[in-house]
Amino acid sequence: MSILISPSILAADFANLQKEVEMLNSSEADYIHVDIMDGVFVPNISFGIPVTEAIHSHAKKPLDVHLMIVNPDNYLESFRRAGAEIISVHYEACAHLHRTVQAIHSLGAKAGIAINPHTSVNLLEEIIADIDVVCLMSVNPGFGGQKFIENTYSKVSRLRYLILEKGSSAKIEIDGGVNLNNAPKLIASGADILVAGSFVFSSTNPQQTIANLKSI
């Protein structure tokens, strides 16, 4: 299976959001990654449910919604109604993670768990068989355009081993600092989905950049 690409709309031109979404529709992207930040769990505020709905109204690609927020359980149903097909919550933000995963599945969405750079993949051992995606943060969450954390490669390898050991079908998603230099090694380590924001939207030809990532 070829690598899946999920461009992060956080890096798009918000003044031309419809145009940016339509560009992604015409690209080889597999998903549209939507970063939701509350200014509490992470030191930044992005956008919420109304903008997610607006993105969905123009999108022809599934929305891959990443909740970087406290108390995500309070908003699962709202983001599902807004068009989320994958909903990822942070391990660090959920006191009752299995219940949260069950709630996401009950809404008919795929359930993802995101973990920060300092969080060990071993903490997912008891739930890895129940989830669809693990989003490994390869930068500290909160801002786009950060430098890739090199330890991510070994983390991907350890997570791939855990997935195989537990018979899980979870896909490994990498979020942060992804580019053409590190993508091949990430894929070789076991990554399935690459999130790319600034690298795509700051390029002179975003569609070609997506195609380049897709062809690795």
UniProtKB/TrEMBL annotation:
Transmembrane segments: none annotated. Substrate binds at residues 8, 66, 142-145, 175-177, 197-198. Its cofactor is a divalent metal cation; Fe(2+); Zn(2+); Mn(2+). The keyword Isomerase applies. Binds 1 divalent metal cation per subunit. Keywords: Carbohydrate metabolism, Cobalt, Isomerase, Manganese, Metal-binding, Zinc. Gene3D superfamilies: Aldolase class I (3.20.20.70). One of its GO terms (cellular component) is cytoplasm. CDD domains: RPE. It is an enzyme of class 5 (isomerase). It catalyses: D-ribulose 5-phosphate = D-xylulose 5-phosphate. PROSITE patterns: RIBUL_P_3_EPIMER_1, RIBUL_P_3_EPIMER_2. The keyword Metal-binding applies. It holds the Pfam family Ribul_P_3_epim. The active site is at 35 (proton acceptor), 175 (proton donor). InterPro entries: Aldolase_TIM, Ribul_P_3_epim, Ribul_P_3_epim-like, RibuloseP-bd_barrel. A divalent metal cation binds at residues 33, 35, 66, 175. Its EC number is 5.1.3.1. Catalyzes the reversible epimerization of D-ribulose 5-phosphate to D-xylulose 5-phosphate. HAMAP family: RPE (MF_02227). Belongs to the ribulose-phosphate 3-epimerase family. This is Ribulose-phosphate 3-epimerase.
